[in-house]
């Protein structure tokens, strides 16, 4: 039979264990584990109107439905008498609920966005937009990511009362991916169709999490994707500098905005970065060399959720990226918008976006893509007005 001293000893040991457990739970890593434990028992939320089991890519359970109240928008009876939209849209709600359900289809996205017309164009139905923004998305073999992005991006932009168009710049063939060159092409092809005030260059795997992060241009080039869940919503350029030990704060990747004047002043983006890495840093240096600075939203508003994925085949790490970066000061005026070469394969005005397929060749010059589809551009397929 235990003595009185033994009972006190057991009591102190129990209290000690409890204190240790409490200390451990206060640490961030254990908080995440506890949060994950409770999410197991929580029913997965999916966007309204979408069926299918999700969770493969993670879920943000906070924030509002991005489609809330948009169904109440109606066309003004007399377009000629429409006034300008408010400086600050009354449709903004702040943080957005993000989830990635499996089984999402483009047809479902199309039904959720009845006011988007052919070519991925939209204009506010009840007021005259103050801003015209083109979204340029370099793309290859990311169809599932594209569905998620379109599902959230269309209502996100509609809440901001923008006149906008979405351009997918698709690289034909199986050659090494060149993201920056595709963005140069997107700039040229978008401005051939309309005098856009602002162009947003947008990675397909990044979903904006706050509709107050307005997709309009500033006086300076803007880096919009300042905080990502992948980095615990810390400043992305701070993480980038720490990881790569770069001596500057010019990172310009993920989602960035430039006016046509900004873009031409810095000679656009480099064309010689084949594979993953380096071009965002080159672009940041170009902004500085052109006498401009980079603006950014606050960490609270410039948040993005990244869709998890592996490095694509044909987009391997670029082994030449650091040597190319070292030469940016000598090459930026020669390599960029003024030297981009490509072949237009097709232009398709689809219900949710304009798809522009191009052959950009290789670092050795233009070559035919592996399979060249028939041109699909027709007069009746011009984007709706």
UniProtKB/TrEMBL annotation:
User: Which EC numbers characterise this protein's activity in its record?
Assistant: 2.4.1.-
Superkingdom of the source species = Eukaryota
Task: List the Pfam families hit by this protein, alphabetically.
Answer: Glyco_transf_7C, Glyco_transf_7N
Note down the stretches annotated as region Disordered. 363-385
Task: Determine if Manganese is one of this entry's keywords.
Answer: yes
Any single Gene Ontology cellular-component annotation: Golgi cisterna membrane
UniProt cofactor(s): Mn(2+)
Q: What's the protein's topology in the membrane? A: Single-pass type II membrane protein
Q: Where is the composition biased (Basic and acidic residues)?
A: 373-385
Q: Which InterPro entries match?
A: Galactosyl_T (IPR003859), Galactosyl_T_C (IPR027791), Galactosyl_T_N (IPR027995), Nucleotide-diphossugar_trans (IPR029044)
Keywords linked to the UniProt accession: Disulfide bond, Glycoprotein, Glycosyltransferase, Golgi apparatus, Manganese, Membrane, Metal-binding, Signal-anchor, Transferase, Transmembrane, Transmembrane helix
Q: Where found? A: Golgi apparatus membrane
Q: Which ranges carry the Galactosyltransferase C-terminal domain?
A: 243-310
Reaction(s) this enzyme catalyzes, per UniProt: N-acetyl-D-glucosamine + UDP-alpha-D-galactose = beta-D-galactosyl-(1->4)-N-acetyl-D-glucosamine + UDP + H(+)
Biological process per Gene Ontology, one example term:
carbohydrate metabolic process
Tell me its family.
Belongs to the glycosyltransferase 7 family.
Instruction: Give the function comment from the record.
Output: Responsible for the synthesis of complex-type N-linked oligosaccharides in many glycoproteins as well as the carbohydrate moieties of glycolipids.
Q: What is this protein called?
A: Beta-1,4-galactosyltransferase
Q: Which organism is it from?
A: Hemibagrus guttatus
